[in-house]
Amino acid sequence: MPDDSIRPLIHARSFSPAPTTFGARNYNNMDDLDLAGGSVRRKGRLSWVVTASYVFDWVVLIAFAAIGYVLGKITPNKRPFSLDDRNIAFPYTVNETVPVWLLVIVGIIVPICLIAVICLILVPGATVPVGTPKSLIWKRKLWELHTGLLGLALSIVAAWFITNGMKNLFGKPRPDLLSRCQPDLDNLSQYIIGGLKGLATATTAGQLVSPNICKNPDKHMLDDGFRSYPSGHSSSSAAGLIYFSLFIASKFAITIPFLAPAGFADASAFTAFPSRTRLPNIKISGPDSYELPDRNPGAPSPSTLDAALGNKGISRHNQTISAVRRQAAAPPIYLLCVAVIPFFASIFIAGSRWWDFRHHGFDILFGYLIGTVTAIFAFRYYHLPISSGAGWAWGPRSHDKAFWAGVGSFSYATDHLRGTYRSGDEEEGLPRANPYGRGSALSGTTDHAPSSRKVAGPEGRDVEYAGDSRI
């Protein structure tokens, strides 16, 4: 039996498919490559296990949404109150500025429809190389749509569940509670439960009465009068619309200009299908060339611009010299206006609860905070950072970690097996690529004949590796 311990250990993070030879076997097709006792498995489509794991995600969200609905129907705790408290003496507003049905349309249905339009029309964008199969393009569209909607659902359901649970737990009176209550004033003394009981009347400052004093026959209206904290309209509108604002900012590349850190990925890594992209070399000329990287003909790298970002020294930040001001630019203002429209709509919805006398100020602010937190979390849970992700969602989970990763696993996108490489999308693996990964200082575009070199094997031993000479 061959000893696997002397095989070169190539980690999943640094390995990309390449014309690699181990011994006398040439692996231009990466379907069966054995590395460090593992296997390289190319996946052209999601396995049923991965698909089932995402279906289960939807099932979990639906279950929590149902629990949140039930929490909104059960009788909440009811905090004692004072009949002369001006903070709960506001009139009951019959016609709300933003009723529940309108909140559902603006905060849920509209984002769903617009996310679908953006993903199906604008994704994957202009960076798709000529000749890319339509099936691959549609796979990307549907994946971006799925993650966009899954993130929206996570944000809204989390805010819904947390808010309804807190409403029942705290039982805080609404500003219009006395208008809902219809107190039994004839038997007032029977309901005094705190304060200065020696006073002649319960309407003096310091007297508290039991919620049982309320005799309104409409139980739903009365129970809802004790659900002021936190505001459900505020949390739901923030969860749906702030998430949608982040989604728009991501897809339309609306971000504050930033300087790429050292070691930042090559610009081609942010295109729709990186390994299918072949960026042309363009000679730099004109007055702008004095601020772009590498004007010196004797420098290590050529003075070229790629079609997407001009290769402004991002992947070779430490090897070339580039004017700082040319590293980034501000997006157009009209795009910024488009991105903040949902955010402003959420503020309007939250504010309407104040002038409709449905919530106290702190209730509105805290509810909005809940929705903001769930929106940001849900967006980052499924999408790359806006400032450095080029508008893409994270890829699917691996087959091995569809439901569970365990201790010692740094990513759900990699397989459990030691030394394996998983391709979650077809564009991740061309027949030839740099084993050190795209954007590496050792990467290049020239093909080299295989050569034998010593590399560190397991336990620090040197082993012979017959492969690409760029290693």
UniProtKB/TrEMBL annotation:
GO annotation, cellular component aspect: membrane
Per UniProt, subcellular location reads as: Membrane
Residue stretches making up the Phosphatidic acid phosphatase type 2/haloperoxidase domain: 149-273
Pfam families recorded:
PAP2 (PF01569)
Name its GO BP terms in alphabetical order: phospholipid dephosphorylation; phospholipid metabolic process
Chief site of localization:
membrane
Task: Provide the residue span(s) of the region labelled Disordered.
Answer: 421-471
Q: What keywords is this UniProt entry annotated with?
A: Membrane, Transmembrane, Transmembrane helix
Gene Ontology terms, MF aspect: phosphatidate phosphatase activity
- On the tree of life, the source organism's domain of life is Eukaryota
Composition bias of kind Basic and acidic residues appears in 459-471
Keyword Transit peptide attributed: no
TM region(s), chain numbering: 48-71, 100-123, 143-162, 238-260, 333-352, 364-382
Q: How does the protein's chain sit in the membrane according to the entry?
A: Multi-pass membrane protein
The similarity annotation says: Belongs to the PA-phosphatase related phosphoesterase family.
Query: What name does the UniProt record give this protein?
Result: PAP2 superfamily-domain-containing protein
What organism is listed for this UniProt entry?
A: Corynascus novoguineensis
